[in-house]
Structure formats: C-alpha cells, structure tokens
Amino acid sequence: MTEPNHTSTWGRVKLPAVSAQALGIYAAAVAIFVLLGALNSDFLALSNLRDVAVSACINAIIGLGVTFVIITGGIDLSVGSIASFVGIVSAYLMVNHGVTPLLGLLIGLVVGGACGLVNGVLVTALKLPPFIATLGTMSVFQGCAYVVTNGNPVYNVPSSFVYLLNSYVGGVPIAVVLVLILGIVAWLLLRRTLFGENVIAVGGSQETAWLSGIHVNRIKLGVYGLSGALAGVAGLVLVARINAAQPEGGSPYLLTAIAAAVIGGANLMGGEGRIAGTLVGALILGALTNGLVLLNVPSFYEQIVTGAVVLVAVALDQGAKGWPVLRGRRTEPPVDAKPQKTAGETVGADAP
C-alpha cells in the first residue's frame, strides 16, 4: 500500500471559515446572556460575569477532552469519576504525605492520563464498545476514590495549592486563563497537527482511515488518554475551588461536560466537533445555572433546562443537515467490511 502523504498544516495557518452552525451557537449564547440580563440586571454585572466564567471552567476543561473522544465516534462516561479520583489522590498525598502542590498537580495529571489510557486499552485491545468500557471504568474509578480515604472527604488542602489555582492574572481568574490556554492548545492540536487530522479522519470513517494508513487504535488510545488527563486537571481545579476533595466531587460534571460538547457542535456519530463551540457550550450552561439562581428558580429545574438545551441544539444541528437520520443516510461504514489486499500487499496500520 502506498504510504499516505501526511503533512502537518503548521506553517500554513489561516483563520478558518465560520460555519452557519457555529454562528448559530454563538448567536444563541449572546441571546441567552441578553435575555438573562433583561430578566435580572445583576446578571450582566462584571463581578457576576466573572462568576459565570469561573463556574464554566470545569465543564469546559472536561468538555475539551470529551470533544476529542466524540469526534472519533466514541464516548467517555468515566470523566466525572476520573476527576473525583484524581482530586482525592492529589489532596490525600498533599495533606497526609507532605507532597508539594506542584508535585501534587503533576501526579494528578499522570493519574488522570493513566485512567484515560485504561479506557483506551479496553476500547482498542479488548474491542469493548466505548459506552460499555467507560461505563465500567466509571464505577471502578469512583470506587477507587472511596477506597483511598475510606469514603471520607479530604480537608485542609495546602493554602499554596488553593492559591495557585484560585489567584488572578490581571484581574482574570487563573482558572479562566487556564481554560483559554487549554482551549488554544486543543484547537491547534485538532486543526493544525497530523494527530488532529487523523482524529477527524477516524471519526469520519474508521475503515477509510485504516485503509489510508492511519493507525486507528493509536489515535483512539491518544484521545482517551487526553480525555483522562484533562478530567484530572478539572478535578484539581475543583479541589482548589472548594478547598477540599470529595469522593464524588466530579460526578455531577459528567453529563454537563458532554452536554457542553454537544451544544458546541460535537456529533455523537463522530467526525465533527468544535473546540470553540465546546467552550461556548460550557459558558452557556454556566450562564443558565447562574441565571436560574439569580431568578430564584429551584436548583432541580437546572437539569430540565440543561436537557432541553441539549435537545434543541441537536435538533437544530440535524435540521441544518436535512435530518439525515430520517432520510436513512448511512453515517458509518459497515462494521463487517474487510479491506481487500492484493497479492504481496500488507496493510501497515492496525485494524479498527
């Protein structure tokens, strides 16, 4: 098989065209902010907008990793548990074993990435469906978080660690700065590197990607590792925010992080996803949560609103594409399709 000409897009960077769907997402965000500001003038106060941005950070960080997984056609249901596990491990080591905050951050990043790689191995080596694999590890990682401290929270986190992730840079919360940096890096990784090109190719058609020489399993392993690492970062940010580590602290962010990615344009069938869209999706969810509080709406209505927003976002996206599902258009290659090899030809990439 002829080796494909994989050429990175570094050196020819230019601003991408903005799609109609992306413009719709941004317009919806502006409309939501204007509406909430009209309903309660305090919403648009600078201090409150800062609170909205901070509240969106955890969903945004987890959502970035989930976006990569979704683009490949997978799903990661373990990100909330990974965030909890990483937070517990890092806080426990800092409080009980004198680990420095910087080392605690590094350990958390490694633990999160390792958890993600476990998911990747289950999906690639054992060929488990992503939903089943990550549903199982969700329980495993959550159980590990309980085992570390016998189900008890970890308090008295070092003040230097809390300050490190709760300080300000030019009046902007460091968590927001971190999200912006991660967002830029994620965008460059997805849109301007060979890895990102391969991620999109795998999501578009695993069979075609394999036949073109892309190591499909390596790409999948990479995106799950990335998702786990970012979930770990989110877990550390959460610990610093509440000055404690809770065994279930990250669990509530599972569905909202996935929702942020979906609202932002990630297609659960794979092949599509927007880094900027995920960040805007997280901001929309943060604004809605904050706005409902200002309007004195009971907190349990937040789940109804979040679900409704996701349904509307998916419906609008499908409508813009002419409802391919209703027309019966095939969105994935046949799972039983096998590549045909000519005499003496060897396929050099791993099979999906």
UniProtKB/TrEMBL annotation:
This protein's record includes keyword Hydrolase: no
Pfam hit, one: BPD_transp_2
Location in the cell: Cell membrane
Topology class, membrane: Multi-pass membrane protein
Stretches the record annotates as Disordered: 327-352
Cellular component terms (Gene Ontology): plasma membrane
Keyword terms: Cell membrane, Membrane, Transmembrane, Transmembrane helix
Coiled coil stretches, renumbered: none
The UniProt record lists the keyword Membrane: yes
Biased composition (Basic and acidic residues): 329-339
Taxonomy, superkingdom: Bacteria
Record GO terms (molecular function): transmembrane transporter activity
Ranges that cross the membrane: 20-40, 52-71, 77-95, 102-126, 168-190, 221-244, 275-294
UniProt xrefs under InterPro entries: ABC_transp_permease
Protein name: ABC transporter permease
Lineage: Bacteria, Bacillati, Actinomycetota, Actinomycetes, Kitasatosporales
